[in-house]
Amino acid sequence: MAEFEEIWPDLVNHARTAEFVRPFDRGKRRELAYDAEREAVVFENGRTDLIFRKNWRRAWEELRRNGVLSVAKFSGAAGTARAELALPFLADALDLPADRDSRRIQLSERYER
Question: Are the beta carbons of 43 and 28 closer than 8 angstroms?
């Protein structure tokens, strides 16, 4: 299975190059950026939310362990509003299957090696 250090560059690159992410709660899309000094993905649209590298690591470890990561599970580490942004971001950045209705993502075969 892919280690966090292998996928982190993909997350950073996606945060730098993608224009926005649409949260699972179907709220307004949020602009993306990467804050290298704080090692955080920044979501912006009237308010700023940051998700730090350590939280991304926890999310990845949970996804690897269970094969599935839900908003409810990740919200303990980042808060529900941030989890609603983080999971679609992960799905987009790593091309993972996402289920908006159940608000969760799945590990794909690509990362199960």
Answer: no
